[in-house]
Amino acid sequence: MSSRQHGEPGPRGARDQLTAQLEPIVDAAVRAAGFELEQLDVRSAGRRRVLRVVVDSERGVNLDEVADASRSVAEALDAREDVLSDAYTLEVSSRGLDAPLTKPRHWRHTRLRLAKVRLADGSELVGRVGDADDEGVQLLVGGELRRIGYSDIARAMVEVEFREPPAAELAALGATAKANADDTTKEESK
Hints:
Elements: H1 11-32, E1 36-45, E2 48-56, H2 63-78, E3 88-94, H3 104-109, E4 114-119, E5 124-132, E6 136-141, E7 144-149, E8 153-158, H4 167-172, H5 177-188
Parallel strand pairs: 2-3
Antiparallel strand pairs: 1-2, 4-5, 4-8, 5-6, 6-7
């Protein structure tokens, strides 16, 4: 047994406890800024703490909005020195393009994009994302519309495309090339 008394939090336990205390504070600040808290990670870096906050929203998040969320979180943390009195570095970002699709809002946000999906049975497919709800997503795979429940998906990621999607695929998903171009322009401005 170590010199630490049984039941006392070790470094990891203390970090987990601090994260649990900070999460409602950070979540409230992120929501006040109009976003959802995707992830909160608290690490020690010497005498400082590094707080990594990832935000998301149904419409995506641009750089100016990340800055707004960062200010909101910093103000909330500074107001709660009783929870975080140590020096800290705050890093706020949005979900990256390479982040896995794990929640219904991730799927809704990636509508009309290609996604590589590994199913629970081990098979893989690549399909264009259609409508998504709280239970599953519609994918256009090889010209065929398929409804896939989230419980059947082991892992999914957005596939990067360098060309406009074929008009026939967009039409099959009830979209137009102009709508997709408008969505792409919004994404690129973020």
